[in-house]
Specification:
- This protein is α/β, with parallel strands linked by helices.
- It has a domain of 124 residues: 3-Layer(aba) Sandwich (Rossmann fold), CATH 3.40.50.
- The chain is built from 16 helices and eight strands.
- The strands form two sheets. A four-stranded parallel sheet has the order 2-1-3-4. A four-stranded parallel sheet has the order 6-5-7-8, sandwiched between helices.
- β1, α1 and β2 form a beta-alpha-beta unit.
- α4 runs parallel beside α5 and α6 packs across α12.
- The longest helix is centred in the middle third of the chain and has 28 residues.
- The radius of gyration is 21 Å and the shape is globular.
């Protein structure tokens, strides 16, 4: 199959129906032994230092990997992708756009899908057939997600890795399915994680230092039981058609659409605190204001750029955040909720 790079999650069913092998360029970047060299390729080509490292890294991957066709999401993800596409064209690559509708509307999504399949030389009927073929893979990924928070037998890193991989199923959805089935069987034999651990939600795009972040949290007695965007990659609301599936996919749309999902899952999974990751120089970082106003839980905002490891400053902030939550948990456990409420009322009365 002819490889086609993707800059974020897209309707891969259309790509597979057209005989292409989708390759998530982000996953290539973070799995490279030296991701910094891919960013350097972009900076030597003239990309500014204050440009997002994901964009620069994707550019470096395109030139380094030999992938000639790139589907660039120019609406519903990153506005910098518009200029990235132009620079890729300058190098003779076949970079072409896909735009999500501005709001989750099934008819608008249907139109976007029709334009996509036409540009790829296939049909929606063929893409729908592929949707049915790969749905079992998505079901397995969502089963892993359920084991993470309900049975507590899956680590936050495993949850992240397998859910984020549903953007392209690592280039082979049948192999992905076999390997994930084996993992699920192993998970069924595991002892659950300790009940006293701190349960965290992770919202925002996957972190550049994800490989170190999740084990570090677990070392400190915490575990991520909800990975927001990664879970969305697995399409938790598949609907009855591709148009419904990608309308239910929250990431490309407004923060209010994302918050409906986030707040419901935080409550369902009994989350104690939230980590919001923002990428340096990304417009989505402004959304932290909205999240802090809407989420009534301790929230730690972490930022990353080209640092593919946890530095001392980030570690210290995480330690202080978890220490605050764990102290709060001890107080709540020691004193019944009605006494805490009464203490709060008396304190207000004094003023």
């Amino acid at each position: 199959m002819k490889k086609i790079g993707i800059t974020t999650t897209v309707p891969i069913e259309a790509l597979l129906a057209a005989g292409h092998q989708p390759v998530d360029l982000n996953n290539i970047l973070v799995s490279d032994p030296e991701p910094g060299r891919l960013i350097n390729i972009a900076e030597r080509a003239g990309f500014p230092l204050n440009c997002c490292s994901w964009i620069k890294g994707i550019y470096g991957v395109c030139l380094d990997s030999g992938i000639k066709d790139i589907l660039c999401v120019t609406g519903g993800d990153c506005s910098n992708t518009i200029m990235l596409m132009e620079v890729l064209k300058l190098h003779g690559l076949n970079a072409f756009p896909f735009t999500y509708p501005t709001r989750p509307d099934r008819r608008a999504m249907q139109t976007a899908l029709e334009e996509l399949v036409a540009s790829l030389g296939t049909t929606l009927t063929a893409a729908e057939e592929v949707r049915h073929r790969i749905q079992p893979c998505r079901d397995l990924a969502l089963k892993l997600d359920e084991l993470t928070w309900r049975q507590n037998t899956v680590s936050g890193w495993e949850n992240h890795l397998w859910l984020v991989s549903t953007s392209d199923f690592n280039g082979d959805f049948q192999k992905y399915s076999r390997e994930l089935k084996s993992l699920l069987e192993a998970c069924s034999r595991r002892q659950p994680f300790p009940t006293g651990e701190t349960r965290l939600a992770y919202i925002g795009v996957p972190a550049v230092y994800a490989r170190e972040l999740y084990p570090f949290l677990e070392k400190l007695g915490a575990r991520v039981v909800f990975n927001e965007v990664q879970r969305q990659f697995a399409m938790p609301e598949p609907g009855d058609s591709l148009a419904e599936q990608y309308t239910g996919y929250t990431y490309p749309y407004s923060l209010q659409e994302r918050l409906k999902d986030i707040k419901a899952e935080i409550q369902r999974r009994h989350v104690d605190g939230v980590i919001h990751y923002v990428q340096a120089f990304c417009h989505r970082g402004i959304g932290d204001i909205v999240f802090r106003d809407a989420i009534d839980l301790p929230l730690l905002t972490l930022e990353g750029n080209a640092d593919f490891f946890l530095n001392a400053h980030v570690k210290t902030r995480i330690e202080a955040f978890l220490d605050m939550i764990q102290r709060r948990q001890k107080i709540t456990k020691k004193y019944p909720a009605n006494l805490l409420s009464l203490a709060g009322e008396l304190s207000e009365g004094e003023h």
